[in-house]
Amino acid sequence: MEQEYVIEMLNITKRFPGIVANDNISLQLKKGEIHALLGENGAGKSTLMSVLFGLYPPEEGVIKKDGKEVKINNPNDANDLGIGMVHQHFKLVECFTVLENIILGVETTKGGILQKDDARKKVMELSDKYGLAIDPDALISDITVGMQQRTEILKMLYRDNEILIFDEPTAVLTPQEIKELMQIMKNLAAEGKSILFISHKLAEIMEVADRCSVLRKGKYIGTVNTSETTMEKLSAMMVGRDVNFHVEKAPAKPADVVLSVENMTVASKSHKKNAVNNVSLNVHAGEIVCIAGIDGNGQSEFVYGLTGLEPLASGKLVLNGKDITHDSIRKRNVEGIGHIPEDRHKHGLVLDYSLEDNLILQNYFEERFVNKFGFLKRKNIRDYANKLIEGYDVRSGQGPITRVGSMSGGNQQKAIIAREIERDPSLLIAVQPTRGLDVGAIEFVHKQLVAERDAGKGVLLVSLELDEVLDVSDRILVMYEGEIVGEFDPKTVTEDELGLYMSGAKRDEVTVK
Amino acid sequence: MTILIQYTLVYASILSLVALGGCFSEHSGVINLGLEGTMVIGALGGALTMNAIEGSLPGLMVVLIALISAALSGLVYTMLLAVAAIHFNADQTLVGTAMNMLGVAFATVVVKAINLSHDSSNVSAAVKYRTAQSYFVIKIGSMRLSWFMIIAFAAVIISFVVLYKTKFGLRLMACGEHPQAADSVGINVYKMRWAGVLISGVLGGLGGLTYIAINNGECEFNTGVCGYGFLALAVMIFGKWKPQNIFLASLLFGFFRALSSVYMGIGWLNNMHIPNAVYIMLPYIISLIVLALTSKNSAAPKAEGIPYDKGAR
Q1: CA of B310: which chain A residue's CA is closest?
Q2: Are A93 and B171 within 8 A, CB to CB?
Q3: Any CB–CB contact under 8 A between B220 and chain A?
Q4: Pick from A317, A321, A320: nearest CA to A329
Q5: Cα separation, A496 vs A336, whole angstroms
Q6: Are B48 and B221 in contact (CB under 8 A)?
Q7: Which of A38, A459, B30, B284 has its CA 20 to 30 A from that of B248?
Q8: Are A114 and B184 in contact (CB < 8 Å)?
Q9: Mean per-residue pLDDT for B99-110?
């Protein structure tokens, strides 16, 4: 008798020290369906998939393949059962060719020598069959992220995997590439492959998945048919309450120019071209300007140039009418730049310091925190920290003396936001401020950004998430290969239109306003 | 002129053998800074063996047994690195440095102990193998070539084939570049790293034997191998971790080393009256310059030196 389910994970429980990552979770995958696994960060999606892929053994529960119980102790077992996975961070060897990456681990040899011709034939057949365009002889380091992902998919198909796991596959793609991927997933399902699709993006799930299972805080909430539900219902299942997707804000009232960037150029550390090439823009008081673009198009270097983390090759920075081009990082901060950095562990916090010490990193040298002999005024610091912790709802185990490294990502981010906003900067630079945060924390961050704007500050937001770009900003500038290639009004522009600019397919001349 | 070529080839053989050893280890993801010490131990194994069996066996057998014992000594010695670096996540730079110090000290102690036990007034750390050494020589015309050149050249070709044409090579390099990727396709990273390190031990040991075979049938162990292990690392880096380039790089470095041995026989060089010390320093200075200029766009395996932890994601 034909089994309805190809894979069943029944009553899976997986504990890590101090936390139950998966608490009695069941998941049933039908043959030929696209099954979405939805949940916030830390809901246990990745853990569950790692159990299925043999990376962690579960403490309780059974896994069945075609109705028969199986043990999966390592990725080889998973592969033998026809389970393949496209990891969120690709597992590709950069200095190997596409073909070498595909055959790695399942090479055919003759007399000890690698035989690549048969493999190439099979790869090209698969590539044609499923519309996965690749160049088998290109090095991974030379190809686009989209093609890298197609290489990962071909890796699974080359191994004749029947059950394909996609772990957050759209996070790194442009809107156009996402559309292509959706089509590819549909083709694969039509050919009888069964797909598990991990995501927290509701729109994608609604578009491509047949059914959706929702996890919340390690627990199984339920499984629904996407045809019978709505995005609102799914999100309520995911978060446990109704969430407001749209940031509520009044129209912007841009006033004087806060920051003026004139012809900024920043050299690249990794290649010969400039990372930021001749960029000019203005940020006005009372508006949120967003730099949109695909990761690695110079946004990071642009911010490094602004904040002083990297020197400018040429150009001029003017903050509130003062030239700060050659000022030190501290001087820029004191002059009125607040910076919520992209990498909060590297540039935002000293993880081994206490929360209170992290909260005064930007102003410990002020008279209220240090006496004239250079000793810190501990009591004032504690009071200041307590005020911020309360005001910004920073939650931690031991209050001001908590080691920051032990706090959750959302609360680490809140601590940075508290520190930066409390200094009352005239320009707030927020780089991917919601990266890795759950829906509740994202709401908080967005509210803070809008509140700063309404308080008459200039806000410069750098984001890779199009939802965020369209929702939060008052003006969108698209950056492609280190240059501003388009300016848009978020109220009138579409995601597709932005995508064309982000991928370099279109560009305009942009005049500085 | 022939003598310059002859010496260049001798030194190039040492350097390419050892550099290839480093190349295998690093492609698997483990930095073997202990090549210097590995050479000393390989040399010790080879020298003691030759000393013991010379004269009692036919020449070809002596050659073979000396090679095997040098290779085995190197292999056993690098197990230290393999265990520490692969299983205990030790800092590979520190382990390598310790191996270098231990190598010379261990060899000195062993040789002195042996010498003393034969003759209580002999406190030297030298091993003699006059007869055995002559077995390694192949005369072609006026050139005195040696087995080692053939072995080194063969090692270059075999390394090239193994790294770029076999399944083993593909998997080995995957472990040095992206061990998580290798693991996710079912490759045992620990096993491959063991293989890489042990191969470096074998080649390092052979390099050590090559090094002492150029002496006059006697080796003083308390001076070690005069930084040849490190020169070989420079050769490896200059050769961009590729066997074919390593071969050319070792010829270049070998040439400069050979100059210091033979410049007195070359009229115009001798007439320039440059102090001998300058020639002796040349290979080391060249390696400094070369590394300063080339190490920026390095082609080093990405994951080298980073212990592989299966649990980390």
Answers
A1: A55
A2: no
A3: no
A4: A317
A5: 36
A6: no
A7: B30
A8: no
A9: 95
